[in-house]
Q: What sequence folds into this?
């Protein structure tokens, strides 16, 4: 059973809930589903008073199995559930289940009590729409006579008020309106209440049904916006979503296509089949190893082999795909393994007896689960990495994440799995500089002394160097005394997470020496395994000539990327992205992508962050206000649909019908003019203009607006935008 986490730590615990693992073979599909592994936050509430509750992270099938097993002698004895996380603010009657106490939602719930839509029809509609959901009949459900049921629809990630540009109730209502639209507006009005919880389980002896539907996350399917039905009955357009092949659906994602790109210098004829296998989709690791072996057998030098393989990888569309890249460790390793085909003998001696270990069956339920500590990026016993150019914000982000784990608060929208003792070691800056950053983060996020002391540790390489490897006359070696001292310190202070920032400060090895860097990276992994910690290494990227960096752009050898099990890359917001987002200063923003996630499904899209200046108030007077230090806060890419309802579209449509409007945004009679006027927005404002552009694009994409070609007043053909019914 998961322990209390998040801001509800002080809430009394209800009785333990037993979860039975979901069993059954997975159906074959074009893409492996994460239905049985992707967890969502569920709050179980003891009774209607809302005074006792417990937060659990679980998969949708696990939740379904728990609902199936829940029974009581009467309806009022059943417990409640909610796809949300509550804080510690109690109402006058000591209830935690209030609108103002919702700090996060992980999904939306709806209730159908009128009997107008059968449970089977609701299941069929959501299945046809290809939306991930769980539906169950209520305790008072009578098949064919009194059809009453509930629907739970998870989101791809938790949403919080502090990271949403609109109030949380409105955000939840927007997503629930999409579900309501798919169900012909048959959800009860109280479903739109933010803190509304729902009974689950059945009265003993009554028929009860629970259905789990796999599909796309609702918030990743923008096509479901068209057809939304809100609480007051207002609608968005007249085209219901639910196209399983529409934008954002798994089936609509671009499939891998083989590439016919050539390598520099050409491809010798006898290597053609091997290269063809790679481009056709054969496992990259196997094909490259075979190719390396053939090259070495032909007498080609190891250096030439490496260069040829790198050229092949740079030209191959398969090799550019991160999922393919994650399947092999390093090119020199492939070359080393191919040397055996020369017929020579090595000199290395085994460390002990070499023997094969027979597999002994073990009940899967008895295998310890992976211990993720922060999202799916930091994992006990494994190394992780962040890659970024200087000045992007990697140190500020890593330190903010460290404080989030130390305080067990979702400062950046990610709820830590548990409270952690975190050690942040900066090899470059003095302790005072790290202390300034910690102070700025605490001031910005309202963190108190009591929350952080005893859980966060920080040191500087200027005072306490930690160099675990160095270059000697005989080669690269691990500094074993340093490693032993480091392991002891981690165990003595019961450290859960160690952040090494930057990676270059923890060794004295040539960065381009791949075998040596592999040794250093694997030593950190060994330390993580021995101490049962999660270790993150912060590394600089090489110059990319203005292009966005990827995890493959880490400075020096590729061994670090190969050794870690999760790698993130940070990039600054570009001027073009800033214009599209409607922000005043794009330099304050950066994005994070996970380019390697071996132990978890790859996350969807990018996470955006903003750096805000925080005055420390440590100046000497009026003319000296003190330091202004940057702190990282989560930021969400503006959604043009935020705050826009069906009635807003009708107002815009009416304004568009009144005249002829051009598609060209540079035109004085651009269609955005009447849209802005109808919605009370100013095109002189950067953010408002970006919102109008986004709305026009979405409405054209959903078919509510159409682009037609007509003659203008000078009899010249131009593209105009009309309301769909007018066209």
A:
């Amino acid at each position: 059973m998961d322990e209390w986490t998040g801001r509800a730590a002080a809430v009394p615990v209800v009785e333990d809930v037993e979860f039975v693992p979901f069993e059954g073979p997975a159906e074959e599909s074009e893409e492996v589903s994460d239905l049985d592994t992707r967890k969502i936050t569920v709050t179980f509430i003891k009774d209607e008073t809302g005074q006792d509750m417990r937060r659990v992270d679980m998969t949708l099938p696990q939740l379904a199995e728990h609902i199936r097993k829940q029974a009581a002698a009467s309806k009022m004895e059943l417990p409640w559930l909610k796809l949300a996380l509550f804080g510690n603010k109690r109402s006058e009657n000591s209830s935690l289940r209030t609108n103002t106490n919702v700090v996060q939602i992980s999904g939306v719930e709806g209730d159908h009590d009128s009997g107008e839509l059968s449970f089977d029809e609701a299941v069929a509609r959501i299945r046809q729409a290809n939306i991930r959901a769980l539906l169950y009949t209520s305790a008072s459900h009578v098949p064919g006579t009194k059809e009453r049921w509930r629907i739970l629809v998870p989101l791809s990630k938790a949403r919080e008020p502090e990271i949403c540009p609109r109030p949380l109730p409105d955000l939840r209502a927007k997503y629930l309106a999409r579900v309501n639209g798919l169900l012909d507006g048959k959800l009860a009005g109280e479903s739109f209440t933010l803190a509304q919880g729902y009974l689950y389980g059945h009265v003993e002896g009554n028929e009860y049904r629970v259905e789990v539907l796999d599909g796309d996350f609702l918030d990743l399917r923008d096509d479901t916006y068209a057809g939304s039905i809100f609480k007051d009955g207002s609608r968005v357009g007249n085209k219901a979503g639910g196209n399983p092949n529409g934008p954002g659906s798994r089936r609509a994602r671009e499939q891998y296509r083989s590439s016919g790109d050539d390598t520099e210098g050409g491809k010798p004829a006898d290597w053609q089949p091997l290269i063809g296998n790679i481009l056709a989709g054969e496992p990259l690791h196997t094909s490259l190893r075979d190719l390396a072996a053939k090259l070495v057998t032909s007498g080609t030098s190891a250096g030439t082999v490496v260069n040829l393989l790198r050229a092949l990888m740079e030209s191959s569309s398969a090799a550019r795909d991160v999922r393919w890249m994650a399947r092999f460790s390093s090119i020199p390793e492939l070359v080393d393994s191919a040397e055996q085909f020369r017929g020579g003998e090595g000199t290395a001696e085994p460390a002990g007896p070499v023997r094969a270990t027979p597999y002994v069956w073990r009940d899967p339920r008895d295998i310890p689960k992976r211990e993720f500590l922060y999202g799916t990026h930091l994992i006990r016993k494994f190394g992780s990495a962040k890659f970024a150019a200087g000045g992007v914000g990697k140190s500020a982000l890593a330190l903010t994440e460290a404080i989030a784990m130390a305080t067990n608060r979702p400062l950046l929208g990610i709820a830590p799995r548990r409270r952690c003792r975190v050690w942040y070691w900066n090899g470059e800056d003095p302790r005072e500089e790290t202390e300034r950053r910690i102070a700025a983060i605490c001031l910005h996020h309202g963190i108190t002394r009591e929350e952080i002391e005893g859980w966060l540790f920080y040191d500087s390489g200027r005072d306490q160097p930690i160099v675990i490897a160095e270059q000697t006359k005989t080669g690269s070696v691990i500094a074993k005394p340093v490693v032993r001292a480091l392991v002891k310190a981690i165990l003595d202070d019961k450290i859960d997470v160690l952040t090494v920032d930057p990676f270059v400060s923890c060794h004295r090895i040539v960065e381009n020496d791949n075998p040596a860097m592999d040794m250093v990276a694997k030593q950190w992994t060994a330390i993580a395994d021995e101490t049962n910690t999660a270790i993150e290494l912060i590394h600089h990227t090489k110059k990319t000539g203005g292009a966005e960096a990827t995890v493959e752009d880490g400075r020096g050898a590729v061994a670090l990327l190969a050794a870690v099990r999760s790698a993130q890359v940070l990039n600054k917001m570009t001027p073009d992205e800033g214009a599209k987002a409607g922000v005043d200063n794009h330099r304050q923003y950066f994005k994070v992508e996970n380019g390697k996630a071996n132990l978890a499904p790859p996350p969807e899209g990018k996470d955006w962050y903003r750096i805000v200046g925080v005055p420390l108030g440590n100046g000497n007077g009026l003319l000296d206000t003190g330091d202004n230090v940057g702190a990282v806060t989560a930021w969400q890419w503006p959604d043009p649909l935020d705050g826009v309802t069906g009635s807003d579209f009708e107002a815009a449509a009416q304004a568009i019908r009144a005249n002829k409007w051009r598609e060209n945004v540079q035109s004085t009679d651009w269609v955005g003019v009447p849209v802005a006027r109808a919605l009370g927005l100013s095109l002189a404002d950067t953010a408002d203009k970006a919102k109008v552009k986004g709305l026009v694009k979405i409405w054209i994409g959903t078919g509510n607006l159409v682009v037609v070609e007509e003659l203008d007043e000078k009899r010249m053909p131009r593209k105009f935008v009309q309301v769909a019914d007018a066209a």
User: Anything to note?
Assistant: The longest strand covers residues 102-112. Residues 1-30, 161-168, 238-286, 314-348 have pLDDT under 50 and may be disordered. The CA atoms of residues 152 and 240 lie 19 Å apart. The chain has 19 helices and 28 strands.
